[in-house]
Amino acid sequence: MQTAPNLFKPETCVNRQRAAAPFLPMSRKEMKTLGWDSCDIILVTGDAYVDHPSFGMAVIGRMLEAKGFRVGIIAQPEWTSKDPFMKLGKPNLFFGVTAGNMDSMINRYTSDRKLRHDDAYTPNNEGGKRPDRAVIVYSQRCKEAYKDVPVVLGGIEASLRRIAHYDYWSDKVRRSVLFDAKAELLIYGNAERPLVEVAYRLSEGEDISELNDVRGTAIIRKEALPGWSGLDSSHLDKPGKIDPIPSPYAEIEESCASNEAETFDPKEAEKAKPIVVQLEKKRPWENVYINLPAFEQVKVNQVLYAHASRIFHLETNPGCARALAQRHGDRIVWLNPPALPLSTEDMDGVFGLPYQRVPHPSYGKAKIPAYDMIKFSINIMRGCYGGCTFCSITEHEGRIIQSRSEDSIINEIEQIRDQVPGFTGIISDLGGPTANMYRLNCKSPKAEETCRRLSCVYPSICHHMDTDHTPTIDLYRRARKVEGIKKILIASGVRYDLAIEDPRYVKELALHHVGGYLKIAPEHTEEGPLSKMMKPGMGTYHKFKELFDKYSKEAGKKQYLIPYFISAHPGTKDEDMVTLALWLKKNKFRLDQVQNFYPSPLANATTMYHTERNPLHKVSHTSERVSVAKKGRQRRLHKALLRYHDEKNWPIIREGLTNMGLTKLIGSGLHHLVPADNKRGGRGAGNRGYKGAKNSNFAATRFTNKQFKQKR
Fold this sequence. Notes:
By secondary structure, the chain is α/β, with parallel strands linked by helices. Helices cover 31% and strands 12% of the residues. The strands form seven sheets. It has a ten-stranded mixed β-sheet, with helices on both faces.
């Protein structure tokens, strides 16, 4: 992987003498207290301002502050007029706009497109405090407030809409968000590195229209960047082979050969031997871009949309990704290659910034649920090797694992212990996108730089991948020894296919870090949907369960796995959901929290949902068709089958079983799924009337053998 410059290098600081603000100012009064007459950068966010490293705007704000910029925050502004966007005055450099930690549409609507009435990122969990498509609305208001001030988009909502994308809520393909927002630049992925470069170059006098070469950014142009060679992939083909780069020494070597002396003196030749400087050969993907099918094509042609999605996902490795260009009318969206990942030193710097770790004082005693959930948790890494097709991490953070040092994490534990109000000695999580990928890496630098696999662990774990969990085990053991720490829980999902490669980790987990329940995500039991999710089969789950149960028993603890499942995922047939429901019943699980597949923009599974094609393989007009549950009644059936025990779902399940010719599963016996009517549950059918423990904080509740026998 190309070596990236230190994110905290002094030469990118505009003023190293400025002290950190207690909180980034949200009002003119706070600015005056700091002695500011204006802000260099104003960040507009759809979340409440919580000065904590789990909140994106706090990270970005503190990062820019550390570089010497004066940063203000406008959090959850009233968006129907420009006035709230003028409260801090005109920024000297630019507005930074984000919808917040969540996509505003996913935040506002359920998977059934029903309106939510709460918002965990808002004081008192109040809904309706951010607009639909917040990035677009906020950007437009910023332009109304100060027309000549550049707008830079960022955050997950912008990342997932950087090119033409299927929009689930309108059921159509929308163009890049850059056009609708009328912004000058979009930063995708984790923004620290590109945003610091953008801010520094603007402060040095460059115009934002000149910032065409910043990695991790998307811009609108009339044509491709000069000096770049293009590969046309606007049709159903594979990007053409790149011609070998000619040797830069060819002409020199030829010239030297023709001027050799007629007589040869070894001593003189040794004296005259040139000093050879080995220049790095140009990589074949450098200054090369791929021309994707145009917006006008993918808008109406589902096969081309799937093809564009496949090419897009093959170009996500920062080590070898080529730029992408997609025409929208007479202009193109130009995506520079992804930003280079942060080093451990950089990660430590980001998480070591002077966060107050609490909400801004202006919120008073109001509760912010998202903060309450994470205030005692610690993010130890970024990225995920999994590449699950339904997950947005691939499109946003990418697959490269970026880990903090042990010292940095221990320091944060001590800060929580000493600074955060209400701490009782329990760390609620040491994790991130996954619990157990901390400091895992590719053992081959060359493979890591050039790999285009969509997943490092599917269909099997790559032989280049390091699965040694020693760093994680050492971290857990050291963290437990911190004075004042009573318990450290692991709440992030465990990637169990990796965990079974190192049983020592499973033992450490079961002995010390489970509070009765451990959540994992098999997502389904059947190969059809699992192959479209890029998730391992249930054999892996059973191996993990065997180890987990063994070590829990050795510790004298009653601990249970809490599995998560997805209904109506592309590739799932009605019969697959019935088989999953029977597995749940056989294993005595009752799902409390159930959600249908939610098509987030740009995800591979969303492409399957929209096009009914599989972009995990080469796409053609005759390629594999994917079964998709789109109609409301079928989606409701899939969801109902996960809650086979709920009598409210029995009518639709009975109807579905009848249509599938599976009436043998309707009845009052233990081998039946639902009873023939709603009058009584019978001997276990649906488990009606079961009074066992139920915890709505978990996806499933497992009832014990004793309780099950009592019910029978």
